[in-house]
Amino acid sequence: MRKPLFPLSLRSDRALRCIVVLTGSLTLNACTTILTHLPGVYTVDVQQGNMIDQSMVDQLRPNMTKRQVLYIMGSPMLTDYFHQNRWDFIYSAQLDGEDRQQKRISLFFQNDLVVGIQGDFRPSQNQVTKPAPETTIDVPKRDLEKTLWETIRGWFGYDGIENSPKTEKTPKPASANTDSPV
């Protein structure tokens, strides 16, 4: 039987295993932090949930119906079957490989009317009106003398315009119809 190169007892074998596991876990953890902060490495922006901002929350008022809340906030991220009078809106974002940021707001209803708001946002005390971003533009009617096909044919000399002046067709009077049986 051969002698081992490094005689280890049972205690030192455990210590060696702990050192190997600890070193391995530290190096794996270091790889992820190094790889996420390398210059030029593209990281995907991960956004999940309902986009929530303060202007949306400022429009919420007590005694609003669920339908009005749906119009302002959109559909809730979580609707609990056991707590149907509570809607949870959660927004989570991890931009540019940074730490994940999460914002949430919970709305409480009683008889389908808002009675409470809880979470990271607080509605303002002032009445907020959201200006409409739409604008109306009057576009003048285009006067086209020729169709596109006529214009293209005109480039090649086949404009279809005769030298004689155009005559307008006049409809025949109804009394001149000789095909009708009398």
Largest sheet: 5 strands, antiparallel
Which CATH first-tier class of the domain at 46-119 would you pick?
Answer: Alpha Beta
Radius of gyration (CA) equals 38 Å
Structural class designation: alpha+beta
The CATH topology of the domain at 46-119: Beta-lactamase Inhibitory Protein, Chain:B, domain 1
Q: Please state the average pLDDT score.
A: 77
The helix/strand series, from N terminus to C terminus, equals HEHHEEEEH
Describe the model.
The chain is of the alpha+beta class and 182 residues long. It has four helices and five strands. Among the domains are: 11-41; 46-119, Beta-lactamase Inhibitory Protein, Chain:B, domain 1 (2-Layer Sandwich). It has helices at residues 10-36, 54-58, 66-73, 148-155, and strands at 46-49, 78-79, 86-94, 101-110, 113-119. Strands 1, 2, 3, 4 and 5 form a five-stranded antiparallel sheet that branches. Strand 2 (78-79) and strand 3 form a beta hairpin. The chain is flat. The protein starts with 9 loop residues before the first helix and ends in a 27-residue tail after the last helix. The model has no long low-confidence stretch (mean pLDDT 77).
Helices and strands in order:
Elements: H1 10-36, E1 46-49, H2 54-58, H3 66-73, E2 78-79, E3 86-94, E4 101-110, E5 113-119, H4 148-155
Q: What characteristics describe this protein?
A:
182 residues, alpha+beta, Beta-lactamase Inhibitory Protein, Chain:B, domain 1, 5-stranded antiparallel beta sheet, 5 strands
